[in-house]
Amino acid sequence: MAGASKAVMDSRANLPFVYRQYSPEQLRQVLHKMYLIRRFEEGAEECYMRGLIHGTMHLSIGQEASAMGICMPLAEDDQITSTHRGHGHCIAKGAEVSRMFAEFFGKTTGYCKGRGGSMHIADVAKGNLGANGIVGGGIPIAVGAALSSKRMKTGKVVVSFFGDGANNEGAFHEALNMAAIWKLPVIFVCENNGYGMSTSTARSTAVKNIAERAAAYSMPGVIVNGNIFSEVAEASFKAVERARAGEGPTLIESKTYRHRGHSKSDRNRYRTKEEIEDWMANRDPVTLFETELRDFGFIDDQGIEAIRNAVAKEIADGIEFAKASPAPEIATLENYVYTEQA
Amino acid sequence: MDAAVRELSYAQAIQEAMAIAMDMDERVFLMGEDIGVYGGAFQVTGDLVERYGTDRVIDTPISELGGAGVAVGAAVTGMRPIFEFQFSDFATLGMEQIVNQAAKMRFMLGGEVSVPVVMRFPAGSGTGAAAQHSQSLEAWLGHVPGLKVIQPATPHDAKGMLLAAVADPDPVMIFEHKLLYKMKGHVPEGHYIVPIGKAEIRREGGDLTIVATSIMVQKALEAAAALGGEGIDIEVVDLRTIRPIDRQTIVDSVKKTSRLLCVYEAVKTLGIGAEVSALVAESEAFDYLDAPIVRLGGAETPIPYNPDLEKATVPQVPDIIAAARDLVKGVR
User: Fold this and answer.
1) Which residues contact B129 (CB under 8 A, 6 or more apart)?
2) Is the confidence metric ipTM above 0.85 for this complex?
3) Are B233 and B322 members of one domain?
4) Do B170 and A129 touch (CB under 8 A)?
């Protein structure tokens, strides 16, 4: 860890990975961002309920440690492909919530100028090549980005996020195979939240753990508790090292849970109230990380309060920015279909 | 050999274009099934792997969906991939990446990326390969905003349009009729561009406009030559690009000839002929028409194996001659 004295290092020697690897300030930033993801999605949900956002959205509330842990060891110019449940990935990779809200409101100041919405949220400047409305659609694209990295020797690592549903898509298998035979710098991250829409992995997937599928493509398959930030970050760190060293891809299965339904049409008929409440009460990733940070003395109650207040302001400001931003002119309807040529 | 009359086959012209593109731009590379040592199912890539190595002529597993997606991902991140589908029919396996990703990514992301991928599709019937290796699916892709779809009909255009496609910032789909691969014609040396989106008048005439695509251009020219002997003067428009379509060339030609025959190999219904007919009907050329518009397209059937049945499935020169003669003589 840069800058930490030997005494400090020794004092953390028995702590989990991230406490040895990152500075207290970096870790407080992680808590800040986990809150930012949580409050962003709560804010988006509220705006949806009030009719300020149309369409639908897929909330990742309950999966924040997974997004943050995977992105922790990534550099700014490393790249990701994301999913329909991609708000957390976008924020974790460095997006501003104001421009995300603006996109959800369909405004020109949004990341996609109002053309993409929640399901196609992206931040190309920060390496997020986009959420995707097609399950598994981003996986081969990530492999292509990794091929670019290898061919152009940029040193970039590419992460492909997808859910448990995607592991039964052909694209998953074709992409993993190609990444393995060409030893590409790509990390496949399956955020297994237990259900592909309503169908549980037990009913949809022949293997008990999706990470087992890595064996079919001769790459490491790693299972982590996706609700524990340090566990996720440690697995990601190792996979990034492996990718940068030219040793090829890794499949990480991050076991987690979404507190909300699949989308706004979900009536939660496929899981029990008790199951949801158990995850919310006992395995909430934000609470787990916050408690750990406090227990290890990296933050106090005052510090937590400061983060919560700062996040609340950022969210309120973001929504105001979105409301005040201009809507696209109808005359611009066909813009961006093709590249405008001089 | 005199450069002005240098002849290459259509397949050689494409190969030469790919070599020039790779020489000019380090970012260009080829991907596809068996395009390396095998040389491609139709020997279009030939020995390019020996000249450019396996890093730039990449054999993929038999994974059309994944392969197309890898090409899209590489294009979005700065490379210039040329992806070969072994047969155009296999586009059905890669459709997700073509239609949902390549075509829409720039739009969905508000113009923040472009997708400069080229995809090549050996297409069409006439090789006895039956129903799953003989289709003409270009209209499927022509229906998708965000894609450009071209059908070069000569070796000259095959080279010039491929070089245009590689230079294009957007996804370009090239449908190459397999029976054209051996066709020889004049191909200039070096780099040149045949622009996407411009039709070409292959033969000027005053009595009837035939708008044809791909191999049907050659058949239409044969028909026109035969009818010339009967005093029927046919104009043949080689459409070359089906998206974006060159509306003006078609409309101007029909205004001149007052009659329109569309000839294409794909299934007639809901095909390119319907689009050409409709755009003329909607245009100022409508008032110039002296006869109903006629379409000659493929039969409403999959491509059969039996050679006689196969031939009967798609328009042949005698069919074009008969339809053109009827139109000009007012039988229709």
Assistant:
1) B87, B303
2) yes
3) yes
4) no
